[in-house]
Amino acid sequence: MTQISALETERLKYQPKLPPVLRNGANVAVVEGEATTAVADADKIAKLFAKTFGGAKLTFSDSDKIATDKPLNVGVILSGGQAPGGHNVIAGLFDGIKSINADSKLFGFLNGPDGLVQDRAVEITAEFLADYRNTGGFDIIGSGRTKLESQEQFEIGKANCEKRGITNLVIIGGDDSNTNACLLAEYYAATEAGINVVGCPKTIDGDLKNEQIETSFGFDTCCRVYSELIGNIQRDANSAKKYWHFIKLMGRSASHIGLECALQTQPNAAIISEEVAAKAMTLDSVVSYLADIVKGRAANGENFGVALIPEGLIEFIPEVKALISELNDLLAHENDAFQAIEAKEDKIAFILERLSADSKTVFASLPQTIQIQLSNERDPHGNVQVSLVETEKLLAEMVATKLKSDADYTGKFATQTHFFGYEGRCAAPSNYDADYCYSLGYTAAALLGNGKTGYMSSVTNTINAADEWSCGGVPITMMMNMERRHGEDKPVIQKALVKLDDAPFKAFAAKRDEWAVKTSYVYPGPIQYFGPSCVCDLVTKTLELEQTK
Ligand code: FBP
Question: What is the pLDDT of residues 353-366, one digit of tens each?
Fold first, then answer.
């Protein structure tokens, strides 16, 4: 690293907090709790994961030390989208394995799971790591979205680990990456490869959480960055009083980010995809809902406002979901023919000829830009790349059209559209994420020190001060169920969508009608890294509401 900012210079000195049990090192013994099962389809998951299924939940005891304190050789992989705090997971892991034995070594596989398969890795030393502590980004070793799922990849990975004497892997990723971590753990256990695998819960989307995993790292920081920006825009809207701002917020599938930002900023409208699906709303009814809010505010002379749109919305509107599913099948089978077509109009005609009558009607009703965006290449997991679909523009246009045809509406409707995603994914981690991530990495070291495999690092009770945090391991199989993926039943970690009967959504639903009409904006301002605890050591409203239910 050549030049670093004044903030980074000061931030490098920050010592992240740890749960009390790890404060004297990661050489702590495990305490076995109750045996576990799976969230659903336990028989099938048990058969597929004969070696790793049903393990006990683990906590640690610092009054007992682990029997062996031999050096640990560990490989670490960052998988999927960037999330604030990834560098601190690596820092916690590094410090943790060194606390067990100073001769332990940490290797970083480069650019995601690809690095393991293509044999690209660097040794992470104390000097190398020093510049990355408490910084955002995944640039220390890079990330990637390659899926680790075939036996061939597992065998190549094993050979590449053996070359470096690596006997432990830590995979830092979301639900899909941790599902693959578990497959890898099972395979290495079944083939007695001598490699243990532990996962860490990462994703800004906040949808890798359950009874044991309170939140995924990065969610806190990202929501604070987006909420700062939303607050700034709200203040601009309330100053100029001439624009409606349609803001799309990242979150591939679940609307946790949109919900948390709404709770932090109190905008005039926030669409929650899970509610749209539950109420089987059509695209037209979503547009009408927004148009009614615009109209209501115009009646009070307020021709401005802010509406939050979750990135994954289109996949939750039943008619669009059905269309996307047809498009997925179509593109899976006829992708080469489709990609060979050059003109946009011809591409659209190609698709229209092949869709069912209902989907044809929906597809034909969309603007051409959206039609093309929906037909673009899928990600490696076969998903539509929703971050590339301009839903915020689609809705702004459709609301404008609806208002034009409404004889009772006499207001002015001028729009600005925004998409916040990349602005937050590599932000310097908030204190919450800096501490949480460091603790997750340190916990992973303690699990590996105890010879555990197929576990996810878990740090809990984080709405309270770190002095009260608990930590341990949870069998990944415990979070799994069977789901239909690409025409096959597969074991996967169950994604946590927004639950309409949970406290965060209820808190939002109780206030949203008031926020729609009145201007009740809250301006959270930027993340604070220095200063009083009341501004530096915050937790998300989602976590607070969920944990104090
Ligand atoms: P992960 O779950 O892999 O962390 O991804 C999160 C995310 O930021 C989503 O919110 C977004 O849809 C996606 O990544 C965008 O990914 P990319 O930049 O690779 O297109």
Answer: 999 999 999 999 89
pTM: 0.94
Among residues 95, 205, 220, 433, which one is catalytic? 205
Q: Determine what percent of the chain is predicted with pLDDT higher than 70.
A: 99
Give the whole-angstrom CA distance, residue 140 versus residue 434: 16
CA-based nearest residue to 139, from 177, 93, 86 = 86
- Is 83 near ligand 1, meaning CB less than 6 Å away? yes
Per-residue pLDDT band for 42 (boundaries 50, 70, 90) equals very high
For residue 403, report the distance from its CA to the centre of ligand 1, in Å: 34
Q: Is 80 in the pocket of ligand 1 (CB under 6 A)?
A: yes
The per-residue pLDDT for range 236-271, each reduced to its tens digit, is 999 999 999 999 999 999 999 999 999 999 999 999
CA of 73 to the centre of ligand 1 (A): 30
* Ligand 1 closest atom vs CA 312: 12
> Which residue among 89, 111, 180, 204 is best mutated to probe the pocket of ligand 1, counting the most ligand atoms within 8 A of its Cβ?
204
Q: What is the mean pLDDT of residues 173-192?
A: 96
Residue that the structure tokens 């502590």 belong to:
133
**Of the residues 205, 386, 437, which should be mutated to test ligand 1's pocket, given the most ligand atoms within 8 Å of the CB?**
205
Query: Order of strands across the sheet with 269-270?
Result: 269-270, 305-310, 244-249, 415-420
The answer for residues whose C-beta is within 8 angstroms of residue 153's C-beta and 6 or more apart is 113, 116, 117
pLDDT average, residue stretch 68-86: 95
Q: What is the pairing mode between strands 56-65 and 196-201? A: unpaired
Whether ligand 1 lies within 6 angstroms of the CB of 311 is answered as yes
List, for residues 272-320, the tens digit of each pLDDT value.
999 999 999 999 999 999 999 999 999 999 999 999 999 999 999 999 9
Q: How far is CA 473 from CA 49, 56, 440, 449, in A?
A: 17, 9, 10, 12
- Contact residues for 30 (Cβ-Cβ < 8 A; gap 6+): 58, 59, 60, 61, 446, 447, 450, 452, 472, 473
- Kind and range of the H or E element at 516? helix 503-517
Domains and CATH numbers, the chain: 27-218+430-493 (3.40.50.450), 244-413+501-539 (3.40.50.460)
